Amino acid sequence: MIAEYLFFILIFPGLLFTAVLGLIVGWVDRKVSARFQFRVGPPFFQNFNDFFKLLGKETIIVKDSIHYMFITAPLIAFGMLVIVSVMVGTALFYNQGFGGDIIVIMYLLMVYSVMVIFGGASSGNVYSSIGAGREIKLLLGDELVFILITLVPIIQSGYQLQLTEILQFQFMNGAVIASLSGFIAFVLGLIAIQAKMTLPPFHIPEAETELVEGPLMEYSGGLLAFWKLNHFMMYVVFPLLLILLFLGGFHLQGLGILWAVLKYLLIVVLIIIIKNTNPRVRIDSALNFFWKYATPLAFVAVILAVLGV
Amino acid sequence: MHNIKETFIQNMGDKIHDSIDKKLRLYFEVDNQNLHEVVDYLFKELGCRLSTATAMEVYRGLEVLYHFSHDDSGQYFCPRVVMTNKDNPAMPSIAPLVKGAEWIEREMAEYWGITFEGHPRPEPLLTKEHPKGEGLDQPFRIRRMS
Amino acid sequence: MADNLYLLIILVPFFIALVNLILPVNIRKILTFLALLYGLYLSYQLYVVQPATENFYFEPVFAADQLSIFTLIFIQILSVIILIFSLKGLEKQIERAFFVLYPMTVAFCNGVVISENMIVFLAFWGMSGITLYLFALLGRTADTPQTAKKTFIIVGGSDAFLLMGFVLMGFIHAGNEWSLSAIHISLNSGWAIVAFIFVLMAAFAKAGGFPMHTWVPQFSKDAPVESAAFLPASLDKLLGIYLLARMVTTLFSIDLLVNMIIVTLGALTVITAVMMAMIQHNGRKLLGYHAVSQVGYMIMGVGSGSVLAFAGGLFHMINHTIYKSNLFLTLGSVEKKTQSNNLDDLGGLGRVMPITFIMALIGALSISGIPPFNGFFSKWMIYQGLLQKTAELTAGYQIWMLVCLILAIFGSALTLASFMKFIHAVFLGQLPENLKTVKETVFNHWLATGLLSLLCIVFGIFAVQIPLRLFIAPIVAEQGWAVLGFPGLYKPLLIVLLFLVIFLIGWLVFMLTRNIRYDDVYLGGMSPSEKFRVLGTEFYNEVRSMQPFKALYDAAEKRFFDVYELGKNLTFALSGLLQKLHPGQLQLYLLYILIGTLIFIWVI
Amino acid sequence: MSWYNKRLAKSIWVFHVSASPCNNCDIEILDLLTPKYDVERFGIKLVGSVRHADAILLSGIINDKVSPKVARIYQQAPKPVYVIGFGTCPATGCCFKQTHNKDYEQGHPIPIDLYIPGCPPKPEAMIAGVAKLMEVLNA
Amino acid sequence: MSRNVVPVGPYHPLLEEAEYFTLTVDGETVTDIDLDIGWMHRGHELISERKSFTQSIYLVERICGICSTSHPLACVHAIEDVDNIEIPERAAYIRTLIGELERIHSHLLWLGLAGHFIGYDTLWMWAWKYREPVLQMIEIISGNRNHYGMMRVGGVAKDVDPASVPELRKQLDTIDSKMDMIAKAAKDDPVLKSRLKGVGVLTKQDAIDFCAVGPTSRASGVRGDVRKDEPNDAYGLVDFDEIVTENGDVYDKLVVRVLETIESTRICRQCLDKLENINGPVLNNVKEIGIGEGIGRYEAPRGEVFHYVRTDGTNRPIRHKVRAPSYVNIPTFEASCKGIPIADALITLASVDPCYCCTERSIKINHAGGDSPGINLLQLSRAKTERIRRTIHG
């Protein structure tokens, strides 16, 4: 029992798997982005090198900051992401879960934003404070859409609040995306995820040329390494969650493996395409977009799901 | 094209003196008390744009030369103000009339020690946080490098 | 002994309150503390003994079922902890009155909870409203009289409705009893509905539910912070939701539509109050609006008709009392150290008041429903219960219920947002120059908040083992509903342990490779300065200025949605009309008499 | 540290400090990131905050007004950090030697580890210079 | 509220150069802006007085690496204006060709950086990819990617090799086709449009009041282009349009720049045509510069560059005043940045394509004497002035 849990959390689908896959997918992201921009892009082990280099560097802690908060924030965020990836991963690969885990995941993902805010704001830097404010506003924007789109598979599967039940439903009745409501929800989910991962066009909190990386501005060395790792781990957590909710999970035998990889790559590439073809939006237009366009649309998807379309 | 120059001289001829007329350029000297009137006429009536102003040291004292460009004709009007008191040079500021003159007057005040009377914001422009000293009364001291 | 438990638990604090009137302040403190500890012991006795109904003149007067005992125990726990906080640091001018009112309030609240007779219930209910008014009068701000009046009118006015509701219920009910447990009314007649609405209004006014909530933020702002933590944040919540729970379980039998309406009111409470909370600049007002907003979850849970949600609602009620008093008290500590509760003036206090910061953080994370704290568990139960309920409904009701549910979940994101603002504005960000010398707060303050924070964590991680098993499961069982069942269980302990493993690994990696240097803030080469800062309070200016919220906020700031203001305007308009009808001309009065007589004759 | 140095050689994050240059080196530095030269191939990335930097790209003569700020920036960078002087200005002062706004006797406020001369140096020369730094780190 | 200040700079990724703004904010809305410049000050005007005319052309080239033709051109115009020196026709076309190529590269540079500033790195990379052919053309003509060193009083330093003209034409064609694509992509991108439209508006009246120049004022509907007003070099001989738009927001500034780039390729094409046909010298031999004063100006990519030269008959100017376009465009922030969010304010700060290296080049003179070692510059200057005065007035 304990060994099993330790295996889940440390090796697969937890720490090691998420971190390594995340760093590799981070490379895919950088490479594909580079190709978009007629560049060659970094070598394969670039993100690993970045990570270990940062570990070897000096960590500077702001004198007037709240030290314990500043240090623990990235580590807590790291822990939360691993937990989420374990929850998504065990449901996806081992068909294990517990009732209402989807709500737990939703709230745990909020913790990530909270930690970004605490880490940034505890440094006492003015840019970080603005970045923290933007992070929370962005969370307000995307959270509503995210809730609504997760409701669609829940409703379709007959109000099951368990990831494995939703998967089971999709094994029986086909993927959620095949329905109209599922499709709308999937598209909106991609956009909401873009915002949750603070990727362009929603990299508003970390806006490099405005806020000098925002909340991460004061981080250096090992702590920055963890933030970067966290960012790349989200490349694993969110696509897997989307696959689980909308694309019917994985069948890991025979051709299923190829399909699994394709599904995953599809989502990653879609994310990268959105990322590379849009300028950063303003925070108020982002809120506007989420509240006045995305939310009603997502709500339409929910109504359609209730009506069984 | 010449009309502009002639109109100007017709209207302001009594306020200016020592004018030098070149192709497309008109340099002339203005006294302190007439400066505002001339600048007002150039900026408001003729629609000239203030290109910049140049301060320099001449025999008689410090000279401030404004450059007004009449864009439609390519004509330049350059009113000259000469301050004979080199120790404590002062002249009226045209920044209240022409907003674009604010920076250049600050810069001249900072480097040449000229007091622009009536300037809306008399503080140094380029040496504000300079470690080696700033301030209007204490112009930045230079070291001559060979 | 056991026979007197009911009387003791009311009379001991009441007697202490009376004695306190003439004693010196220090002895008042000791006596109050001892009385409340004794009350805690008594409530434990009640829990163990479960005594029978107490009769006077053959009328049942006091009784205790699981719900009452549960409420009673938490009244004692909360009042002891808040008393610990109040022992030191209270303003000298109000100290004397405070320690009289405090045990008295506890006595009345205890009375409400264990009353079996309607009249007795009403009497205690009304008296607890009066102590609330007196507490409000203790405030030191300029708006205090206004606030006290408003509180009194809303809460006292709702008492009148409660009275009318009870009278109606007495009439509708077949027998001529005034016993609460004997009455069970189904909502099939018009008068029954009226009675239901009247009682609901009283419950809402006490708990602070929409639209009777407006006194809560003002009370929180103007009254002493201890009383804000004591009454609107804890005891009044317990009483209001206690009454609501009574209504939906024993007093009335309600159908789906009523359930839906209550849930809708709950969702509206959540969302309106939290939207108002987001834009507040005053820390106490912000907390006050949250005290309202959280009531929405309880109303949704208790009123939904789903067993799981009902249990969740009750659980949320105690959780709320815990974390909200924690938040009020931490803000109180900050306020006593910095002499300000205006968020604009604070900032960076996490550096100088780390313990208070951690306590406030735990409270904030609990209220925002972050796992593994207690707020999450009860919200999770409510959501699950509501979704279970939704699955049983028809499509139209499903969408209705889903809208409420979405509003509630989104409300919790908004709660998180406004608490980020709160935490940022008070504890994070830049420390103003004049607060550099602030020191950590006194021992009893952080002992009290520490106890509450501990409860937050324990109730979060051991939710099933402690509060659910000990208190809530018996209540549910008592109602004869199915045993509390989960479709599956979220295991907070496991998650926390696994999280700790990962956290420790991260920590280890960081500590092994660490190479730490301390330096100033990086501002593009500029030196840090006090003026380089942004205020957390201004985070939501974009939301504030976005249509349609702008119009709503503008209207709300003109108190357009305030029942009290509306009522006041209406009353003034009516009296103005009446004044116009009384010009003082004799002929006119004669005419009135004539018309009156004519109508009278015509009616007869 | 050599293992870390090898990682560092493969992932140099640069922070650009322009200390009163003529802007040309700065533009050429940015040019390095663009498709034709693309130094991301070597793991070089431009960062916005000096806290993330491994190398400071310095251009210009570092005049008196800017020099305390440059010194400050250097202090705030996490060590190890390397300073690369781009262009002729940090090396010799170029045609601004006679300026009154720079006290050459005091020298530069920060130690410069590597000079890449040229006015401006060609991008190829810049890459060659950075490659030299990598060689040193890898050794 | 006034104590909530966001500093921008001196080192901020928005600005490649060191500059320092303080934005007073209310939430995220900028209520006031304060500018502090001078970090790039190198004292060009003072150094220039110690250089010969030919040397000072090289010096002013290093005022700014992006406008490294505009300043020399304006400088030689000023020196030529003193004595009304004429230049050969072929030299005029070469000057115009280089000037316009510089405009193309500068505008593309701005477009890319603007993309970078609003987080659109793809636009940045694309714009800069297509900027490379321009640099290549310049390298073919002058031998350098930047700092061409082509200008001389009385002509240009180096002729364009006729054999290289076809190659230049080929490169120009690639630029042309790509420019059309970029113009379309940048102008019609709905997200970009919604991001930039109505942002940082500089009204026409403000543009006039602040005496703004170049694309900044033309985007606000104020006409004014030195190439049209005072057609020096070959500008009177080629056909091109002046781009003026009305709204004054960042998007209009983008449109003006993109359309100007297309006009520039037109001019370049005409210049290349003429270069194939016209032969002759490219440099008039100028022996000496007389006494007097001259104003030279040139429409740099950012607006009018203004040089004023006063000579005393020696081979050095006694006063050389430089006014770069950014110097008058930067103060317009005070009008255009108030009341908009930080995100908008920062792109507005970038929208005038500010060049601080240009802006801060002026002279410093020790007016009150003081402790300067060696010869007192003031006395030197006075002596010099006296000398001139004697020569002028006999």
Defining traits:
C: 604 residues; mainly alpha; 2 domains; D: 139 residues; alpha/beta; Rossmann fold; 5-stranded parallel β-sheet; 5 helices; 36% helix
CATH-defined topology of the largest domain in chain E: Cytochrome-c3 Hydrogenase, chain B
The CATH architecture of one domain in chain B can be named as 2-Layer Sandwich
Identify the CATH class of the largest domain in chain E: Mainly Alpha
Name the pair of protein chains with the most residues at their interface, and give those residue counts: A-C, 88 and 80 residues
Question: How far apart, in Å, are the first and last alpha carbons of chain E?
Answer: 63 Å
Give a quick account of the main beta sheet of chain B: strands, pairing sense, barrel closure. Answer: 5 strands, mixed
- Can you tell me the CATH superfamily of one domain in chain B? NADH:ubiquinone oxidoreductase Nqo5 subunit
Whole-number average pLDDT of chain E?
A: 80
> Based on the structure, what is the oligomeric state of the protein chains?
heteropentamer
Strand order within the widest beta sheet of chain E? 1-2-3
**Quick one: biggest sheet of chain E?**
3 strands, antiparallel
Count of individual domains of chain E: 2
Q: How does this structure look, described?
A:
The complex is a heteropentamer of chains A (309), B (146), C (604), D (139) and E (394). Chain B has helices at 2-12, 32-45, 101-112, and strands at 16-22, 25-30, 49-57, 62-70, 75-83, 90-92, 115-117. Chain B has 146 residues and is α/β, with parallel strands linked by helices. Chain B has a domain at 2-87: Beta Polymerase, domain 2 (2-Layer Sandwich). In chain B, the strands form 2 sheets. In chain B, strands 1-2-5-4-3 form a 5-stranded mixed β-sheet, with helices on one face. Chain C folds into 2 domains: 2-480, no CATH class; 563-603. Helix content of chain C is 72%, strand content 2%. Chain C has 22 helices and 5 strands. A two-stranded antiparallel sheet of chain C has the order 1-2. The longest helix of chain C has 32 residues, at 307-338. The N and C termini of chain C lie far apart (61 Å). In chain D, α1 runs antiparallel to α5 (123-138). Chain D has a single domain (2-138), classed as 3-Layer(aba) Sandwich (Rossmann fold). Chain D has helices at 2-10, 24-33, 67-76, 88-92, 123-138, and strands spanning 13-18, 45-46, 55-59, 82-86, 114-116. The relative contact order of chain D is 0.21. In chain D, α4 links the parallel β4 (82-86) and β5. In chain D, 36% of the residues lie in helices and 15% in strands. Chain E has 394 residues and is an alpha+beta fold. Chain E has 2 domains: 40-359, Orthogonal Bundle (Cytochrome-c3 Hydrogenase, chain B); 365-394. In chain E, a hairpin with a 4-residue loop joins β7 (303-312) and β8. In chain E, α4 runs antiparallel to α5 (121-129), α4 (89-117) packs antiparallel against α6 (132-142) and α4 runs antiparallel to α12 (250-277).
